[in-house]
Amino acid sequence: MLSLYNTLTKSKEELKPLESGKIKMYVCGPTVYDYFHIGNARSFINSDFIRKYLEYRGYEVTFAMNLTDIDDKIIKKANSEGVEANDIAKKYTTAFMEDIHRLNVKPATIYPKATEHIPEIIELTQKLITNGFAYESNGDVFFEIDKFQGYGKLSGKHLEDLVEGARVEVNSSKKSPLDFALWKSAKPGEPSWESPWGNGRPGWHIECSAMSCKHLGETFDIHAGGNDLIFPHHENEIAQSEAANSKQFVKYWLHFGFLNINDEKMSKSLGNFFTARDLLKVYSAETLRFFFAQTHYGAPLNFSDEGLDGAKKGLKKLDNLIERIKELSNDIEIKDNGAVSNFADFIRLFEEAMDDDFNTPKACGVLFDFLKEANRKLDTQVGIDGKLLFDIKSFISATAVDIFGFTSFNKVVESSNSLENELIELLISVRTESKKAKQFQLADYIRDEMKKLGISLKDTKEKTTFSKD
Length: 469
Prior knowledge:
Strand 11 and strand 12 form a beta hairpin. The radius of gyration is 27 Å and the shape is elongated. The protein has 15 helices and 15 strands. The chain has a 4-stranded parallel sheet with strand order 4-3-9-10, sandwiched between helices. Helices cover 46% and strands 15% of the residues.
C-alpha cells in the first residue's frame, strides 16, 4: 500500500487515484526572472523522485509544471535592464530548461505558461464574479475571502487572526485587506491584455488555478510545492478553484521542507544565496540528487559543503560496483532470466520504504545495504554467473538509475588524474614484487596504508585491482 502525507488532512493516507492506474500531478514551477536557486532545485528533484516512483509502480502520470512568465519580479527585472518583460521571461525559461536537464529531471508532460492561458484566466475570473466570490474595483478584480467558508483549511490559519494581523491599506479599493487580486489593471509601460474590466494582467494565484484545471481537470490527484507556498499561494488556489467549480480542487497536497545554508536561512544579504547553475559548476547533478535524497522531502534540510562532500564520497561506492559489473561482463555474458531472484528481499525493502510516504532516506539505506551484499556475493561466490550480474544490474537500474538518477551504466567514472592512477599501479607492482620475495610484512604495510588513503586492494589469482572508497 502506497501512502503519503496530505497537508490538507494533516495525516498520512493511502494513495487512491481518482482514475484507476492514472495520476494527475501539478507542481509549482519557477517565476522566470532569474536562475532558480537550490531551494527550488530541492522541490524539482523531490518531485522527480515521486513522479518516477509512481511510474515505477505502474501508474500513468500526467505531470504538469507551470512557468510563471508574467509577474512583478519579471517586470522589475526588465525595467532594470532596459528590455521587454517578454525578453526576460524567454531568457530565463531557456535557462530553466537547460538547468533542469542538467539536474537529470525528467521533462514534464506539459509546461503551461501563464501568458498562453489569458483566455482561461479571464474565464475563471468572470466565473468567480458570477458566483458571487469576486468583485471588480477600478479595473482590478479581487477575490472576497469572507465569502469562502473553507478559507484556511490547508494552512490552518484562522480568518479572524489574519484580519487582526493585517495591515490596514490606505485608500484601498478592497472590501477587506485580505482580499487578493485575480486581475490587475494595467499600469503605464507594463504588459497588459484586454479583458471585460479593461486592460490588465492576471494575479499570481489565479494563473495556477486556470492552468492546472485546464490540463488536469477541475479535480486532480496531487499538487506539490515548497512549504513556503502553503500560504497564501496554495490556500488561495483552493479558495478560488473551489468557489468557481463547487468541487474539491486537489485530493492530496504534498509540500517540501525548508532549506537552510549552514544552519542559516538562505539570503542574498547573508551572502549564502546559491543558484543551482552555480552549484553545478562545483558538484555533479548526481551528487546533488543523492544529497537531497538522504533527507525526507517534507523535513527541513541543512545545506553544507560537508554534506555534499559526504554525498560525493558515498556515490563512489555505487560507481565502483557499476565499474566492477561492467568489467566482469567483458568475460561473462549477462543473462536475462526474468525476475531478480538473488535480491528479492532488497526489492521488497526498497518498495516498502518508498511506499511509506516516499521515504527516500530509508530507500537509500536499502540501496547501500544492497551494495554491500552484491559486493560480498561477487567476492565469495564460486563461479560468478551471468544471472547474478543481471540481478545486480537490474536492481541498480530500477532504483539508483531510473528513480533516483544517482548514476548511469553509461557513465564514465572520472579519476582524479591519470598520474594518481599510475602511482597506485606502481605501488601495487611494488607490493606484488614484495610478496614474490616473501616480504609479506612490507606487502601488508603497503595494503594497509593505501586503505587509510581510501584505496582498497583486491587480490585475485590473475592480478590485484583497486577501488577508491
